[in-house]
Amino acid sequence: MPTATSSSESSPGVPPGIAPGEIPPDGKPVTKLDTNALSSEYPRTVWTQGDGKTVGVIAQEGGCGKASASVLEQSATLVKIELVETLPLDKQACTMDIRFPPLTVQLAEPLGERTVALTSRQEQK
Q1: Residue 81: which of 110, 121, 49, 113 has the closest Cα?
Q2: Where do the domains of the chain lie?
Q3: Closest CA to 84 of 53, 61, 55
Q4: 27 band by pLDDT with thresholds 50, 70 and 90
Q5: CA 47 to CA 55: how far, in whole Å?
Q6: pLDDT at residue 21, as a whole number
Q7: Residue 58 pairs with which residues in a beta bridge?
Q8: Which of 23, 42, 63, 107 could anchor a disulfide with 38, C-beta 3.0 to 4.6 Å?
Q9: For the purposes of burial, counting CB atoms within 10 Å of the CB of 56, is it exposed (0-12), middle (13-18) or buried (19 or more)?
Q10: pLDDT tens digits, one per residue of 72-118
Q11: What is the pLDDT of residue 22?
Q12: What mean pLDDT do residues 32-38 have?
């Protein structure tokens, strides 16, 4: 029976193929996801906390960028969350690192069985 192997560089307790920033902190993982609008490198980790009105996501930011999340739409079947990386307008020296900060948004009603659709974009301010 074949076994999965992982690199010796992987973090302990992190399943193979999952970046450390992609493991949800505490909460219930959301499995009904629409991530078609995300680039292939973007994290796809979503979870609910408490009564289900708080939804957590792993965002992506790098260098001088700062990640944020907001709810664009809430319907009976769908919750659309936009992840934005805000970059400074002024040219400046920035590190070349990529970070995966956990962010949360508040819903009007618990997520329940609704699908979470993630979108992302960059903006300059």
Answers
A1: 121
A2: 20-124
A3: 61
A4: confident
A5: 6
A6: 54
A7: 102
A8: 42
A9: buried
A10: 999 999 999 999 999 999 888 888 899 999 999 999 999 999 999 99
A11: 59
A12: 95
Please say whether the beta carbons of 61 and 99 come within 8 A.
yes
- The token pair that represents 11 in the structure block: 């973090």
**Residue whose tokens read 């992609």:** 22
Tokens of 112: 């329940």
pLDDT tens-place string over residues 99-110: 999 999 999 999
Whole-angstrom CA distances from 87 to 4, 15, 22, 107 are 38, 31, 22, 27
> Over the chain, what HEC string results?
CCCCCCCCCCCCCCCCCCCHHHCCCCCEECCCEECCCCCCCCCCCEEEECCCCEEEEECCEECCCEEEEEEEEECCCEEEEEEEEEECCCCCCCCCCEECCEEEEECCCCCCCCEEEEEEEEEEC
Structure tokens at 125: 């301010």
* Mean pLDDT value of segment 16-41: 77
